[in-house]
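Please review the protein record below. Tell me whether the encoded fold seems credible here:
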Amino acid sequence: MLPGEGPLARVPAVAVFAVVVVVFAVGVIVGGVPGAILLGLLAVGVAVLLATTWPRLRPGERLVRVLVLAVLVAIALGLVLR
């Protein structure tokens, strides 16, 4: 996949950011299993983006993205286990 040619190429970055923030907030506010499912969907999206961009990322960028994924999964698990 080349930069600028993917399925999100024409979607404004602000719109994508807003959707992610809203889904995250709703997931945390709702809590429990439904909230964990929403956060799990976000985690899957982050994992897919990480996998597709991995070769183009520098080691520091990889580390930050893996940490974001780990925190997202930890919060989702915390919602299920509370």
About this structure: The two ends are 40 Å apart (CA to CA).
